[in-house]
Amino acid sequence: MIRLLIADDHPIVRAGLVGLLSDEPGLEVVAEASDGDEAVRLAAATRPDVVLMDLRMPTVDGVTATARIAGGEAGDPSPRVLILTTYESDDQILSAIEAGAAGYLLKAAPQAEIVAGIRSVAAGQSALSPQVAVRLVERMRRPEPETVLTPRELDVLRLVATGHSNKQIAVSLGIGESTVKTHLLKVFDKLDVADRTRAVTLAMERGLLA
Prior knowledge:
The chain has a 6-stranded parallel β-sheet, with helices on both faces. By secondary structure, the chain is an alpha/beta fold. The chain has helices spanning 11-22, 36-46, 62-73, 90-99, 111-122, 130-141, 151-161, 166-173, 177-191, 196-205, and strands at 2-7, 27-33, 50-53, 80-85, 103-106, 127-128. The protein starts with a strand and ends in a 5-residue tail after the last helix. It is built from 10 helices and 6 strands. Strand 5 (103-106), helix 5 (111-122) and strand 6 (127-128) form a beta-alpha-beta unit. Helix 9 packs across helix 10. It has 2 domains: 2-140, Response regulator (Rossmann fold, 3-Layer(aba) Sandwich); 151-205, Winged helix-like DNA-binding domain superfamily/Winged helix DNA-binding domain (Arc Repressor Mutant, subunit A, Orthogonal Bundle).
């Protein structure tokens, strides 16, 4: 029996998944969570085999929750996390996989694909929707663009990498907090990322913070 935890902030979506999966032999939904923090806590309490994780949820998002579960907060061995979402941007896909997700499927996928993905992930394999697989292949083939950050943008990013808040960065560099935010937005745009963690990770990968 594959024990499942469903994490999604929409009750109707959770109810639909429970109904869909309850009719499948060998699958059992043991818990439901409405945000990432609750998903981590319930994963530790119920020890499911697979967590079906949405990405955008209140309090704690799916990528952060995935990283926490993969990092051992839900026990050892960690439950396998299968992202099930409507979002398929390159940055979101990469962030989820880097956080430890074993698979990435779209909610619009046929029932058979979702069930097959659950079984694959539970068996220690990976599961990617065809659309996501194509995007990852294209991303791998695409040459990384040369990224040019200004000296001040690099100063800000280095301080972000060491855990400084915007306020601390402003004090350290002698600039306004709003100016720090402006620099960060420009960095996000140049690196084509959506958050601080991904900006630092990508900058390190490209040798910008060496």
